[in-house]
Amino acid sequence: MEIQTLRYFLAVAREENMTRAAGALHVTQPTLSKQVRSLERELGHKLFTRHSFSIELTEEGRLLRERATDLVRMADRIETEFRGLDDVTGGDLHLGLAESWQVSILAQEISHLRRHCPRLRYHVTSGGTAQVTDSLDRGLLDFAALVEPPDATRYRSLPLPVIDVWGVVMRSDSTLAAKEAVTVEDLVGLPLLCSEQSWERDIPGWAGERMGELTLEGTFQLAYNGAVFARAGLGYLLAFDHLVDTSPSSGLTFRPLKPTLTSHMYLIWRREQVLSPIAQRFLAQVRSSLGGLQDPQDPTATGHAPAER
């Protein structure tokens, strides 16, 4: 099975039309059809169901699409990395990032690195812990940034010396907006919006024995989308500060939780991972800068880099 054949297959799966796929690939339709039939014979399964003016993936085809996407992405990474081995001024950096205002720290580090590596190209994937660690484990990412302690048996990590502060994003005309901070008692009986991961891992420790009195109205992967629903009056969003616009003109207000609930972010990479030259330079850049990073919201910040795990 050749990578080029998988590229042909993915193009047909994407276009759902042999003619359009052939045009996108700049090959003739007979050539493309021959490649697809050859792939089906090789695998021993039918990959497409043909209709009058379109085609669709079979169950086996959907499975191959999932696997082929990873294989093609990995092949592209290998080609790019080897082309860039002798390029001291650039390369491709792949990051998987959770939602956090601390991402701005990593953006700043990339900005600093670009001064010495003007040919640097970076590719960012956003998602929850399961999503980004899965991509990291499959070798599709150089680093991931999580807002929970990583598994030290699988990953090496650098804790970023800042914190995310939890709170409630709500309509500015809400009665809770008049409070300086929001307690568990304030939230009892209200429709709450939160990421599923945080509802299971972060909020129970804060709410304690009253967790069972809280009502989860809806779950969101992205705080921005949750804020849209909060603005519509559908619920109160539990999220980090700084993730959504809560300026006076936004119609939204953020109030911290009481007692305070915070989360730390960790930059992680696989223990057995061989980093590309540009990934090594990025890691060195982050390490050299950590001592100067402080959280303006954390009065206990010393400015010293935390220990690497």
Automatic annotation (TrEMBL):
Residues 1-58 form the HTH lysR-type domain. Keywords: DNA-binding, Transcription, Transcription regulation. InterPro entries: LysR_HTH_N, LysR_subst-bd, WH-like_DNA-bd_sf, WH_DNA-bd_sf. Residues 290-309 are annotated as: Disordered. It comes from the Bacteria. It holds the Pfam family HTH_1. Belongs to the LysR transcriptional regulatory family. This is LysR family transcriptional regulator. The lineage of its organism: Bacteria, Bacillati, Actinomycetota, Actinomycetes, Actinomycetales.
